[in-house]
Specification:
The complex is a heterodimer of chains A (395) and B (136). Chain A has helices spanning 27-42, 70-77, 96-106, 121-125, 156-171, 175-189, 203-208, 271-281, 300-309, 318-322, 341-344, 351-362; strands at residues 9-16, 51-54, 84-87, 112-120, 211-213, 216-217, 226-235, 246-252, 292-294, 376-380, 387-392. In chain A, strand 5 and strand 6 (216-217) form a beta hairpin. Chain A has 12 helices and 11 strands. Chain A folds into 2 domains: 5-127 and 225-241, Peroxisomal Thiolase, Chain A, domain 1, CATH 3.40.47.10; 153-223 and 246-392, 3-Layer(aba) Sandwich (Peroxisomal Thiolase, Chain A, domain 1). Chain B is mainly beta and 136 residues long. Chain B is built from 1 helix and 8 strands. In chain B, a hairpin with a 2-residue loop joins strand 7 (115-123) and strand 8. Chain B is globular and about 45 Å long. Chain B starts with 15 loop residues before the first helix and ends with a strand. The chains are: A alpha/beta (395), B mainly beta (136). The A-B interface holds A 129, 131-132, 134, 136-137, 139-142, 146-155, 158, 161-166, 169, 210-216, 260-263, 265, 267 and B 6-12, 15, 41, 66-73, 75-76, 79, 83, 85-87, 95, 97-101, 112, 126, 128, 130.
């Protein structure tokens, strides 16, 4: 392989299902809708697809979380022979499936790989609460959850709130600063037709919202949704056949640190740190070159941690960076989460963030388009999950 | 298992010593006999020096509060809300973190850095290590 592997692949298609709360639709239905949309968006047909990968595959999890296995989606789409197929449960963040698809295409294993994430978390969990029921509890917990769940640390909200409290202790992050992440995302969701929550909120609405687990309030938490997003990753030599390919400038997938949620000794030195460093090592572009960024916002604090891990501001400076919203709105210095992120757009585990980056690079974002966007950054994960990717238009 | 039983760990060869150590009234962690490094969560060889000579060893049970969160949602019947989840740093080696519940303290008196002492909540063979303030 000549040059870096990123140069051998493109994202050819980006598709989505409808996004909704409590749609009652099956995850397979959502996955198929998004996949057909992505394949058509690429300018391809299902007969062109020779690879498929899911994140995370059918793993034991609360109702609606996992989505359908890759071969079930292949079956529903009546795909032909697949030279690459599977699910990616561990790895460099929720985008590990996409990265893996890129590696397979760059290595010549397949030419057009379908990647998807489908979730029915909103319908699946109904009013029951995400965390109250988990199949890992049934026969005694093993592995990572065994260190957390017996003590009531049953939700990612707890794991991130713990890091957020430490960050507040070290740097004095104020609620009136953190709240701007939620307010900004909601303002951008208002411009995004498919976002789940689109009515604007103010910083006072944020401050009045109930505390879920301190210091995180309701508006600090992303929205469980019924939604799917899919991509097609294609070999660069197929570009003449494609409608609007998007170039991958660099991927950060490195890992360093212990594989737990609670062993980090600094609240922003999570897996995001190694992934960010790795991404910047694979490109000559720098922070100032980024025109628009979708930073992981499973909880608002995660976006704060990413801003610092990626070097957009120094340690302890992210609160001041987002405060007031001027820097991070569309038209600002670094427009963030232009599709409403996951806090307002709906949780599709980073895939909706990458979708928004593709739309921005193509100039197809309508009312929320960042004018002249040439470099789009997407980051995914928190705790032991971290991945980042820079997109640009074709050269 | 009753409504008062929280989700419990399975006793496995890797960590059963940890979850049952409270039966002696003392918390035990895996420690390297060669270099003295504590290994938590446990690993079969020392992460510091590579020695395979590792064994559970009692610790003081003293720790300081690294961080915490007050959880207001009623999520588990076994743990009434609000409750405090904390990560404590072990006195013997402060990069050993233990996620736990902080008990025996008013919600508004929980502070990062406060000294804590282990106490156990027994569920059959499993003794969950909880932490409470050291009496003044």
């Amino acid at each position: 392989m000549r040059g870096k592997w990123e140069d051998h692949v493109v994202i050819s298609g980006a598709g989505k299902s409808d996004f909704a709360r409590r749609s009652g639709r099956s995850e397979l239905d959502l996955a198929v809708q998004a996949s057909r949309d992505a394949i058509q968006d690429a300018g391809l047909t299902p007969a062109d697809i020779d690879g498929i990968i899911a994140w995370p595959g059918e793993i034991p999890a609360p109702m609606g979380f996992s989505g359908p296995a890759a071969l079930r989606v292949s079956d529903a789409l009546a795909l032909g022979e697949l030279t690459f197929h599977g699910s990616w449960t561990e790895g460099a963040s929720q985008l590990a499936g996409l990265f893996s698809a890129c590696h397979a295409v760059a290595a010549g294993v397949a030419k057009h790989v379908l990647v998807y994430r489908a979730t029915g978390e909103s319908s699946g969990q109904g009013g029951g609460g995400r965390s109250a029921v988990h199949p890992v509890d049934n026969n005694g917990i093993v592995g990572n959850f065994s260190w957390l769940r017996p003590f009531g640390a049953v939700s990612a909200a707890h794991w991130m709130a713990l890091m957020a409290t430490r960050y507040v202790h070290e740097y004095g992050l104020k609620p009136e600063q953190l709240g701007w992440v939620a307010v900004n995302n909601r303002a951008h969701a208002a411009l995004t037709p498919h976002a789940v929550y689109r009515d604007p909120i103010t910083i006072d609405d944020y401050l009045e919202s109930r505390v879920i687990t301190s210091p995180l309030r309701l508006y600090d938490c992303d929205v469980p949704s019924d939604a799917a997003v899919a991509f097609v990753v294609s070999a660069v030599d197929t570009v003449p056949d494609l409608r609007a390919p998007v170039r991958i400038e660099a991927v950060g997938s490195a890992y360093s640190g212990r594989p737990f949620w609670d062993q980090w000794t600094h609240p922003t030195h999570m897996a995001s740190h190694a992934a960010a460093k790795h991404m910047w090592s694979r490109t000559d572009l720098r922070q100032d070159d980024v025109d628009v960024a979708q930073l992981y916002d499973g909880f608002s604090f995660i976006l704060i941690a990413w801003l610092e891990a990626l070097g957009f501001c120094g340690p302890g400076e992210a609160g001041a960076f987002v405060e007031g919203g001027e820097r991070i709105r569309i038209g600002g210095q670094l427009p963030l989460n232009t599709g409403g992120g996951q806090l307002s757009g709906g949780r599709v585990h980073a895939h909706s963030l990458l979708y928004e980056s593709c739309v921005q690079i193509r100039g197809e974002a309508g009312a929320r388009q960042v004018q002249g966007a040439q470099v789009a950054l997407t980051s995914a994960g928190a705790g032991p999950l971290g991945g980042a990717v820079l997109l640009t238009p074709p050269r | 298992m009753t409504a008062l039983t929280p989700p419990l760990p399975r006793l496995t060869p890797e960590s059963d010593f940890y979850w049952t150590s409270g039966a002696t009234g003392t918390l035990s962690l895996l420690r390297c006999s060669a270099c003295g490094f504590y290994l938590h969560p446990p690993t079969p060889q020392c992460r510091a020096c590579g020695s395979a000579d590792v064994a559970p060893q009692p610790v003081s049970g003293r720790a300081t509060l690294f961080t915490f969160t007050v959880s207001y949602q009623q999520l588990l019947p076994s743990i009434p809300a609000p409750y405090v989840v904390g990560i404590v740093a072990l006195e013997e080696q402060d990069d050993v973190h233990i996620t736990t519940r902080i008990v025996g303290v008013d919600l508004d008196e929980v502070r990062i850095g406060m000294p804590l002492q282990v106490r156990f909540e027994q569920h059959d063979d499993v003794y969950l290590p909880l932490f409470a303030p050291v009496p003044a």
